[in-house]
Amino acid sequence: MTVFPPTFAADVVERPAQPQFEAFIDEHRAALNGCLDGLTEEQARRSLVPSRTTLLGLVKHATFVEKVWFDEAVTCRSRTEIGLPATPDESFILDAGDTIDSIRSAHREACEASRRATASLGLDDVLRGNRRGPLPLRWVYLHVLRELAQHCGHAEILREQILSD
User: Fold this and answer.
1) What is the pLDDT of residues 71-128, one digit of tens each?
2) Do residues 117 and 74 make contact, with C-beta atoms less than 8 angstroms apart?
3) Can you say how many angstroms the Cα of residue 89 is from the centroid of all Cα atoms in its chain?
4) Do 137 and 118 form a contact (C-beta atoms < 8 A)?
């Protein structure tokens, strides 16, 4: 299993842009996965907002994000072929069999698959499988980083509320 995260942003200050993007994304992947550390299954599933957002749901959604941007967009396979829900909102829905361990494992596997899918690509390579149309990898990295950063913020607030109970 790959160390999570494999590279820290502080380690790539002098490196080219692509390893810098990848390190920042990996730090956010790890932070979001880490929001489940030390929680019970009930705490991870606890709903504190009117939306479907829970800590476990956030990590499940992050797995969906990885597969949309680094499987669908790279391979041009449909969401149905990949086994993804049709919409982002549906990706927060927790099934009875979803556990902290199963969701964390799926997230780590999706992140590793994302790294493999982009390993031979450059920042200016165009990904053609996204519904928005052709997009350069650079844009995809920035979009994923923005989304992960937002969800890390959500997770920090939810975790703080859960742990203060």
Assistant:
1) 999 999 999 999 999 999 999 999 999 999 999 999 999 999 999 999 999 999 999 9
2) yes
3) 14
4) yes
**CB-CB neighbours of 163 under 10 Å:** 10
pLDDT tens-place string over residues 131-156: 999 999 999 999 999 999 999 999 99
| pLDDT for the residue numbered 10 | 83
Residues in CB range of 58: below 8 A, 6 or more apart: 32, 35, 92, 151, 154, 155, 158
